[in-house]
Model the fold of this input.
Amino acid sequence: MVAWVLVTFAAAGLGAWASVHAAEFYAQLNKPEWAPPAGVFGPVWTLLYALMAWAVWLVWRIRGWSTAPRTLALYLGQLAANALWSWLFFGWHLGAAAFIEVLVLWLLIAATIVAFHKVQRFAAWLLAPYLAWVSFATALTFAVWRANPALLG
Done:
């Protein structure tokens, strides 16, 4: 389990690296009324990453690399896409690319849930809050990108 926690939180760290100045940048943006304050994101993502690590560990424990390489590779792929979004949005201020990428991330998470469900239902359910949050983040990314053409080219 420790290895999966380390891998999962390493991706979180890569995203956090791009988000060092995210609070300041987020404060500059025109946001919809339903946008949460910047302080909400850290605790929510910490919980989601913990649930993700738990889910992948359950799948790995049952199947391992030898019998579930595609399932585990799918998990790693969505993890990489997750980290990339922070770079696109907060690091490079590329709103359109971040929006397209978050759509891809959503699809990868949904595919991971389906794959995990075939191995262990509870592991799939552990990813449900993640998919819900990324659904919200997708709408927020679009709204913020469209409201800030000068800052999110």
